[in-house]
From TrEMBL, chain A:
CDD domains: STAS_anti-anti-sigma_factors. GO terms for molecular function: anti-sigma factor antagonist activity. It comes from Spirosoma endophyticum. This is Anti-sigma factor antagonist. PROSITE patterns: STAS (PS50801). Residues 15-104 form the STAS domain. Belongs to the anti-sigma-factor antagonist family.
TrEMBL record, chain B:
It comes from Spirosoma endophyticum. Keywords: Glycosidase, Hydrolase, Transit peptide. One of its GO terms (molecular function) is amylo-alpha-1,6-glucosidase activity. Pfam families: Alpha-amylase, CBM_48. Belongs to the glycosyl hydrolase 13 family. This is Glycogen operon protein.
Amino acid sequence: MSFHILSEAKKIAKITLVGEIDSLSAREFQKEIEKLATGSPDELILYVENLTFISSAGLRVLIFAKQKMGTNLAIYIVKPQESVLETLEKTGLQHSVNIVDQYL
Amino acid sequence: MTESNRIDYYPTHEHEGIKFRRGHSLPFGATMVANGVNFSIFSSAATACTLVLFERGADQPFAEIPFPDEFRIGNVYSMTVFELDYERLEYGYRMDGPFDPGQGYRFDKSVILSDPYAKVIGGRDTWLAKPNWDNVYPYRSRLAFEDFDWENDHPLETPAEDLIVYEMHVRGFTQHPSSGVKNPGTFSAIRAKIPYLKELGINCIELLPIYEFDEWENSRPSPTTGEVLVNFWGYSTVNFFSPKAGYAATGKFGMQVDELKTLIKELHKNGIEVMLDVVFNHTAEGDQRGHTISFRGIDNKTYYMLTPEGYYFNFSGTGNTLNCNNPVVRNMVLDCLRYWAADYHIDGFRFDLASILGRSADGTPLSNPPLLESLAYDPILAKCKLVAEAWDAGGLYQVGSFPAYGRWAEWNGKYRDTMRKFLKGDPGLVSEMIQRLIGSPDMYSQRGPTASINFITCHDGFTLYDMFAYNNKHNEANGENNNDGANDNNSWNCGWEGETDDPDINFLRHKQLKNALTLLMVSQGVPMILMGDEVGRTQKGNNNTYCQDNELNWLDWSAKETNADIFNFARRIIRFRHDHPVLRSPVHFRYWDYVGSGYPDISFHGTKAWSVDQSASSRAFAFLLDGDHAKEGIVKDVMVYVAVNMYWEGLHFELPGLPAEKKWYLVSNTDVPAPNDSFDGGKEPLLENQHEFLVGARSTVVLIGK
């Protein structure tokens, strides 16, 4: 499955994640976060409807985002699939992000 | 200087398209470094070593890289390999050298060996998922991300005397369908049950082994049911640094490290410590007939205690004995415990068959065992609880005399035996009961009461309910002709072997259970409860359920309702302990009034106040704790009076007089049916008769004076 990143850096940064995040694609994800961090966004919106898997390395990018962009950064995970949601829950990440059905 | 400016950021060698360079000797294991992975492994006698690399789950390795001679420093081979996928990589080693068992050498380069320092092991990722028996490398070393986000968590460092330990099996706790959790049998499921632990009043869970083991080891069909018998308990370590993948809902994704750390973080947030039952006395490789997994093929003579003929000493009763006081092995144990303490924030360790840790390489007990001393004085483990199961299967029994260095506590086997005998009505035990209830000062005069982990039941033996439902073990389902398991259970079936509809017998059993819980909670020292005893869990008379992955070991959550009287009693008596510091002294009693309250810190009584019958026929006594002496007189508490009558008839106990402004109130009376068998704090009823109490047959009464 392919992995794509679409992003725009404003006060609100948006990324769409598609496919699987494993250790290789996590590196791309991290680079994108680093790029967006220069704009000091207040919110990071991750559209993950078509993300089927997130590995340990992928989870770490979420924590990295918080550290890079500041603990006040609000991360929204929009419409995760059940498998991704479960991974976030079991690894405790659901406390650090906002899981929503849609971002308004 | 950026990482890419470093010389070691770039490879110097290439083999089969894999780029690598000389590595760093320390740390041992596989470590993620800039641009690669550093591999380091010790062997004192290998003549050559090869690093074997697999893509996750692949049948065959994608590369085998022999260590160039110049990559070995001393007895350590190290290499940094570049451009590896951290999450997809599996690695192992081939060690070349002599195969000469008589001399202790068992090298075999045809076998791919696990890294003793691996942080994750793949191959048993989902509990009882059928493995590929033809796998060339069944227990595969993997990498772990060690940058978990702990936020502000740290080990709780709860004073030992304030702990209520709950001995738990990860899978057994929630695997029963009645648990109602999303991922039964996992770390994640324990997290879902934290509210239950808090309701019960538990502030420390002690997990049966969670190091990677193989549940399929010695698997076979049950002679009674035909279902597969497995290694359920897990006292057979495959790797000391890796959490059991099959205990993680995310094990199939290799995320067990994160899942376990998340559980520990959440438990800490809720004031609950985590202790691990660690098994350093032997490994899963068995004796000379066993499989070579790791240690045997890497350095058999270093890792194992061997007879002069090259056979395995068997002080563990499981085939081999880890050579713990060899300096290399000692360092591995130390590295391992430091890793669990520092990286997993583990609060304490209970050492299985810990007496083995005090034996020399030839099995002789040492007076000053270097490993035990190292653990006691280690800076990282400095605040960890260290608890010894102070005996081994080779006949060494050190309860009360374990080399402690002022640090080690012990599972108090004498406490267990005395309580059991007294509860079933054996006479002549009053003086010993008193010693056990006050923290066993006869055994731990220097260390204090917290050296005594008080328990009546643990995973090994009958459950508390079965203690009062079976005279004899019933282990037929284990397939060993009922020859396995202990025979000295000191149990009493209350008049009928096994289940019965007789209401009197069932009432007596519940009463005995409550008696046991009461004694445990009013004892000085550290109480430990076996998972499920708070709801009367039964193993149907099986006292050695090591192989039963079924309802014998799974906690039936519906018992919380069906045995609500036991649960509510357990909850209240645990709360009572928490509420009253006079029950949790950090030091031994002095038996005199050193605060000027008019009462000694502790006094002993019987049917006559201030007089205790310690004769050979006595089965009854009482004691009074003076609240003004709580925590050595630093805090104020109420007076606590406990009367115990294991005689078969009720006895009138004369109550010791209270100061004029105080009255006696009833906390619990096991002779009375629920709900009046116990009362919540603040709701204890005032006694009508302030001078005497009729303590029923085989009953325990707790009063407070306030």
